[in-house]
Amino acid sequence: VQLVESGGGSVQAGGSLRLSCVTSGYSGDCMGWFRQVSGQDREGVATISEYGHRSYYADSVKGRYTVSLDNAKKTLYLQMNNLTADDTAVYYCAAHQSPGPCLVPTPRPELFKYRGQGTQVTVS
Asked: How many Å apart are CA 117 and CA 4, to the nearest integer?
């Protein structure tokens, strides 16, 4: 399984970015995003079930972030709006074969088996 993120970069506060995660070799029921600031614990950001029927968000991003899935393109997205400096982090795509991680209302990165290499998002 390979997960490859893209779309990170630098943006001013109040701006937007869209992250993408292209998958290969993966077929499963749950995907998500988490982020990590150097020296801090990972923070679950969002999860989405197969076909996008169910999604959950961390309280810190609700109303600003939207997770979506294009199964035909085998790509996961994260639309991030109204960004603040607190959103600065390395963002990781994550995947799991079974639906477990997507049944929990608070995204938990430790429940996912696979993750990508990460993409840096910097908000100033």
From this structure: 7
Q: Report which residue type is found at 26.
A: Y
Per-residue DSSP letter, 91:
E
Range list of β-strands (E), the chain: 2-6, 9-11, 17-24, 30-36, 43-49, 55-57, 65-70, 75-80, 89-96, 114-115, 119-123
How far is Cα 88 from Cα 61, in angstroms, rounded to an integer? 12
Work out the average pLDDT over 31-45.
97
Tokens read off for 42: 């990972």
- Give residue 18's pLDDT: 98
Single-letter code of the amino acid located at 55: S
